Amino acid sequence: MGKRLYKSRDNKMISGVMGGIAEYFNIDATLVRILYVVFSMFSAAFPGIVVYIILAMVIPERPRQSKHDSESEWSEF
């Protein structure tokens, strides 16, 4: 199964949207947050807040891994 975009459970400030995007692209979450703020400030009518709210509602939260799932990953090696 391919790579999926999820909200981050570990790297979150508000809802984990920017942390999830950073994890998806394997980059620093602080950089993603800074770029988001800069692009939002220079866009017309500051739609960044609306986009963030939509993303927070649309992007699912990362599923929790059960203890059984994490043990089975290690048993494969």
UniProtKB/TrEMBL annotation:
This is PspC domain-containing protein. InterPro entries: Phageshock_PspC_N, PspC. Its main location: membrane. It is a single-pass membrane protein. The chain crosses the membrane at residues 34-59. It holds the Pfam family PspC. One of its GO terms (cellular component) is plasma membrane. The keyword Cell membrane applies. The keyword Transmembrane helix applies. It comes from the Bacteria.
